[in-house]
Design goal:
With about 220 residues, the protein is mainly α. About 85% of the residues lie in helices and about 0% in strands. The protein is elongated.
Length: about 220
């Protein structure tokens, strides 16, 4: 018990910071780029805007191809990419690369679904008043899709927390790395239990905050 507490005191703080860094940075990249991809998919598919089947099919294929890969395989495939960019892929920043590439198509489909829930009648009314595509996106689509969009962000962040633990198993740092080094390799069951409890609490807090914000912005 004393050894477990000592391990947690010495390593838990840095592990949580590494995990937070990987999750926050990759979530920002995933949400920003994923939203752009989702808009492109939505606009090229919706008859009210600029339908372009070729562009929609190509982008949709790329998104689906990345999403179809199990994250563990994607992570291994991207190690050479991280090596090329960073020199050392086994760092939290190396983990960010894998997490970001996984997050973009994941969130893109969630955001596209949120945009598709917007009432077409509202869009037609906006178009009939002479609103530009930019005005429609920011003044009609985003406000109406916001609750689902926020829930999608929460789902993405929670998924990234789980993925970040997997990234840690290959030495990228964070909670996963700590669980492997001490909980598995050194048979410190108490460390594993503590990490599981901490992850559950973090996920519950994020989910509660996300749900509260989504309810607040629901029209």
């Amino acid at each position: 018990m004393n050894e477990t507490l000592e391990i947690l005191q010495q390593n838990l703080g840095k592990a949580l910071l590494d995990t937070a860094y990987m999750v926050v940075v990759s979530a920002i990249i995933g949400v920003v780029l994923g939203t752009l991809v989702a808009l492109l998919l939505y606009l090229t598919e919706n008859r009210l805007f600029t339908p372009n089947r070729a562009v929609n099919v190509i982008i949709g294929f790329i998104v689906n191809a990345i999403r179809s890969l199990p994250f563990l395989i994607l992570m291994v495939v991207l190690i050479p990419v991280a090596q090329l960019i960073l020199g050392d892929p086994y760092t939290p920043t190396g983990g960010v690369i894998s997490l970001s590439i996984a997050a973009v198509p994941f969130f893109a489909r969630i955001a596209e679904s949120a945009f598709s829930e917007v009432d077409p009648g509202l869009l037609e009314a906006a178009i009939s008043t002479g609103a530009t595509t930019r005005q429609i996106i920011f003044e009609a689509i985003f406000p109406q899709a916001l609750p689902s969009f926020i829930r999608g962000v929460v789902l993405t962040v929670i998924s990234l927390i789980g993925y970040s633990a997997m990234v840690g198993t290959i030495g990228a740092g964070g909670i996963g790395d700590m669980a492997i080094q001490y909980g598995y390799n050194r048979y410190e069951t108490g460390v594993l239990v503590a990490i599981v409890v901490i992850l559950i609490v973090i996920v519950q807090i994020i989910q509660w905050i996300g749900d509260a914000i989504a309810r607040k912005v629901t029209h």
